[in-house]
Amino acid sequence: MADDKANAAAYWKANVRLITGCLIVWAFVSYGCAILFRPLLAGIPVGGTDLGFWFAQQGSILTFIGIIFFYAWKMNRLDKQFGLGE
Amino acid sequence: MSQFAINLLFVGASFALYIGIAIWARAGSTKDFYVAGGGVHPVTNGMATAADWMSAASFISMAGLLASGGYANSTFLMGWTGGYVILAMLLAPYLRKFGKFTVPDFIGDRFYSNTARLVAVICLIVASITYVIGQMTGAGVAFSRFLEVSNTWGIWIAAFIVFLYAVFGGMKGITYTQVAQYIVLIIAYTIPAVFISLELTGNPIPGLGLFSTHTESGVPLLAKLDDVINALGFRDYTADVDNKLNMVLFTMSLMVGTAGLPHVIIRFFTVPKVADARWSAGWALVFIALLYLTAPAVGSMARLNLMTTVYPDMAGQVESYEDAATNPILYSDRPEWVRTWEETGLITFDDKNGDGRVQVYNDGNDAFAETATQRGWNGSELNVNNDILVLANPEIANLPSWVIGLIAAGGIAAALSTAAGLLLAISSAISHDLIKTMINPKISEKGEMLAARISMAGAILLATFLGLNPPGFAAQTVALAFGIAGASLFPVLMMGIFSKRVNNKGAVAGMLTGLGTTLLYIFTYLGWFFIPETNMLPNTPDNWILGISPLSFGAVGAIFNFAVAFTVSNATEEPPQEIQDLVESVRFPKGAGTAVDH
């Protein structure tokens, strides 16, 4: 029973750590590259405009898809590793 | 065959398909009605979620918003997609594990309080009703143009169709009609975009065409667009914004709103396993991205096409944009599509300087006023409603008439699928959470289904009435709904999963604070209950607190919600042990059955 509890706690900790990492990337591309740091990216030209504009209109969406699939894949492995899947 | 006959054919055929599917997949039990029997494949569910969630605002208004706002309106793109990341990691799998039918179900049980359940029902209804108004307005625009009926009739026809398949099919019918609607809407959206991209840049993929070279002039498309609109006194399309705080908050509001919208959340209750809920969110975003990566191209290309239609000299290689801007087309030479849209009143022309030519420029720009006077201009003369850009696109680009019929079917599919999803969320909150859980727990399954269908019919009538008297254009109303859902429901759902300490009192206080402050802020600028002229302050950036627009306030409301909930919870007693065990159990997938009733 105590083992179960420790196991569940470790699983949850790993999950929260994974979520935090993913959220940092999520915030970095959208709020960061596309909005706040856009002036810093102004020197990198992309098709008639700059990299910040590309992140705002396309780059962040593509990254979001990558984050979700990465998270789902990683979580499914954690489920198995901790024996807490269905 | 006339254009009208073709439109009728496409719209009629797609309706027949939806209604056919609704009859085939009609709901036999409450489980079918609320969660489609719980056996939907994650990819199918992703597709249905995409249609459910991509509304008239995404299909009809978003390209127009991007066209008029350029970079500044990228917030819609990032906000409406970024929410899926939070949904996939912070809500969907845990709520799926919890395994009940509705969002208030979770809130009521987790916070062991019928008050919390009731507040959640109210938040859900306020957000969903606000949202459904936008869908009805959108459907009205599409119907009135393509079936050549008045806006009022357009809205009534939409209400009747939604009634037929949502009331009888429930979640099961809606899931499979939404899959069909997704296919119709994505084809309708991308075909014209591909042709327009080919025409302007030679690149068949619109998302890549956006960053390619404009064939006729040999300069990058976006640079060309900047030059053209600059000569007419508009800001650069790609220009950065000054108020970054507002842009960040607006994006955040749309993100937490997406994650907090009940009709999206309940879609994740229909998949068989917790792991499927995670995959499903990813698939939903893939299907959404097909449209969302195309929309920026549609917006910028439509804007360029519109400008070069009015100023033909600006189309090819241009020596001096100053000179090219002095030679707009004669009103009598205007293209056919302008004539047809003039009939709907969504394009209007007013020859202010009486020269028989069409001048379009930024007459709100004081620095440009002198140039305009020199050119003999006396105000911008052509007024084009933002919402028509996508619908008019095939005509602007001279595409064959069947493409126009297809776009008609797609626009209507987008509006109807979202309206149906919202109405289902509203009706299940009323029949399941209010009637079954709180008022009459002994109600039979048959009685509960009847109550669900009656409340859905009532919700459709209310939505139709509000669609006929809308508070703003489609996308703005939708943005408000996101603010409300994000400020009231999202924080409390998240705290319910990630904190064992937040108790019933904290949750209720938090929800009321989030909903209250957000509504107060919105009503201050947009009028009480959106009734015109009852606003207490004019809705201009100078009057906004710290430059935060009413549309961006949802994120601030959510922060208040979190703060109040934690403060109140820490000042009061801990939640009972069985609730802490419940929180523990939703955190890992083991032991999840299909979604079950009480």
UniProtKB/TrEMBL annotation, chain A:
Swiss-Prot/TrEMBL keywords: Membrane, Transmembrane, Transmembrane helix
Organism per entry: Halomonas aestuarii
Pfam family, one: DUF4212
Claim: Secreted is one of the keywords in the record: no
InterPro entries: Na_symporter_ssu
Ranges where the Sodium symporter small subunit domain occurs: 9-84
Name the UniProt record assigns to this protein: Sodium symporter small subunit domain-containing protein
The keyword Transmembrane helix is assigned to this record: yes
Transmembrane segments: 21-41, 53-73
From TrEMBL, chain B:
Biological classification of the source: Bacteria, Pseudomonadati, Pseudomonadota, Gammaproteobacteria, Oceanospirillales
Molecular function in Gene Ontology: symporter activity
Bilayer disposition of the protein: Multi-pass membrane protein
Protein's name according to its UniProt entry: Cation acetate symporter
Chief site of localization: membrane
GO cellular component terms, semicolon-separated: plasma membrane
InterPro entries: Na/Glc_symporter_sf, Na/solute_symporter, Na/solute_symporter_CS, Na/solute_symporter_VC_2705, Sodium:Solute_Symporter
CDD domains from the UniProt entry: SLC5sbd_u4
Species the sequence originates in: Halomonas aestuarii
